Amino acid sequence: MPSEVEMLDFEAFKERYEKVPVEEYPNNVREAVPDPVVSVHLLTYNHADYIREAIESVLMQEVDFPMEIVLGDDDSSDGTREICIEYAEQYPDLIRLQLHHRENNIHLHGRPTHLFQYWYNTFSARGKYIAILSGDDYWTDPLKLQKQHDFLQANSEYALSFHDAKVAADKGKVVSESKTPDENKRDFSSEDMMSGAYFPALSLFVLNIFEQVPEKLIFCINEDKVTISLLARYGKGHFQEEIDPAVYRVHDSSIWSSKTPLIRVKANNDTLKNMLSVCDDRSTREDIESKILGSCVSLVSRLVFACEVAKALKELTDTLILFAKRKKLFNMFLLLSNLTRFLGGSIKNCIRAKYWRLIQKLGMSAKPQTR
């Protein structure tokens, strides 16, 4: 990573973002499991209708290695916390229940997020490997963890394993047999993963390489994309078709599916920009820049059609400045060309005016150049 990138370890993360101390419910896990091979990373917030199924899907796992469950509740108000405490008391040698406080929430786009909870859990994990699950999803294969563990143990050139997931509606009815695009049901090279590949988060089984994390990446709502990008520096990704699909649940309060399309596009755009800022590989930077270009066109167009013209122009200006600082004049030209095909009249003229003003301000040639 670039030398100027600020890295945070667990202590620095807590010092900077933990306003109210996180409480760990009394347990014996450190004594009973001094050296876990796998840490199950399970987050929940207001999942009273689903959390039992998620926890039970972990408890049913048949493994021949020591493991721990790092269960984080973000101060739920619907009875989820009480259910988590019930399980923590029943399994004191297995479950480390972290009781979070809403005061610690990291806010993005004017809303609280799960990011403090996510990274606190990640830093807390002691296992060689981390398996990720959300409190409203669940696994179906009792040998899932064993199969993923065995593969990574036998293939050191891989940093993660993933598998497919079905999509279910609120009440459990399956609405899609596969969440993974067909073109992603394959192994991925490190280069493919570095610019933000997509794998179902609830299927991820990864090397625990998270002693330090770039601070900018903590502010990415697409934390699964960031996690995959970081792991790309340590190896490839393997798709395990033989694992029964997990179940990803879509409902009104889910972390991602409940967000509007506009917020999702904005979040993805911000994530790509933060990933670019910590990338030092030329080929990967170009790939991320290409994705930013497409994401910005989508975001600005959506904002314009939503009559949020001021926000649209700000997003456009920020992206143009990003490309200008990197001397990517061709990207600037391509971005504006793509946008002006969608937009017309005064908006088109306004965009063109901003482009020329920016060029003049930066003292750059107005003639578009190829890469």
TrEMBL record:
GO terms for molecular function: hexosyltransferase activity. SUPFAM superfamilies: Nucleotide-diphospho-sugar transferases (SSF53448). Residues 39-157 form the Glycosyltransferase 2-like domain. Signal peptide: none annotated. Gene3D superfamilies: Spore Coat Polysaccharide Biosynthesis Protein SpsA, Chain A. This is Glycosyltransferase 2-like domain-containing protein. It comes from Longimonas halophila. The lineage of its organism: Bacteria, Pseudomonadati, Rhodothermota, Rhodothermia, Rhodothermales.
